[in-house]
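Q: I have 272 residues here and want to know how they pack in 3D. Can you give me a structure?
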Amino acid sequence: MDPVVFRLRVFLILTLAVLAMGSLGFVVTEGLSLTDAIYFSIVTVATVGYGDIHPASSSGKFLAIVLIVTGVGTFLGVIANATEMMLNKRQQQLRDQKLNMVIGLFFSEIGTKLLQDFSRADPKLDLGRKDLIVTGQWSEREFSALRQRLRDYNYTVDTQRIDLEALRTMLGRHKELFLRLLENPVLLENESFAELLRATFHLNDELSHRNDLARLPNSDLAHLAGDMKRVYRLLVHHWLDYVDHLKDHYPYLFSLAMRTNPFDEETTPIVQ
């Protein structure tokens, strides 16, 4: 649990306990109704003073002193922690916004094309390709169900369906992009996406160290297939999270993402 949320709950419980104790005490010591006693306790703890009501008896005044000493601290604790929680939430929203901008840049520059190539080299995906055609009518329930199915999916990349030379050229052309993204401190907020970048950068290194990609032995092709499978799996999960985010926050970007859906073999960016 978030420490700020935990502290807020503790201070709320303490504040309610102090108010309950004070209200009951004022009913007994001052003979007030329960409504007046609760009101009396709240204005005491909130330090707004008394304009229409005040303790008359010695025991009531002593209780008010105890209520001020114990209640003001807990009440201020509630205010301070609630404010901190709201500020943290706002900061997290800004960090998430920046992170999604970085993810959007990645998919715009290379991620979508990589996903398109790998998915078309996956012989088993043809059976469920239609399930990845996301539409604007999808609910969070449908996104969650697809995430669950994809967690259990056995990703496969057939190297015979991949143009390794073209893949090497494309990755090499974006090497500077990988370096810049890996230097971005926002990525520290999402280790999974950082792992995707590392896996993609590693695949680029593997391909760049081979001279003749057309004459690789089957053992080496199997090794490269494993590297591509790692990238492929991470790409799919992050692509789904990204389009889910676009659907809820940026409909115009979501529209383009669906018109360039890497799993739709009939997709076109042209609005029909």
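Q: Anything worth noting?
A: Residues 95-259 form one domain. The chain has a mean pLDDT of 87.
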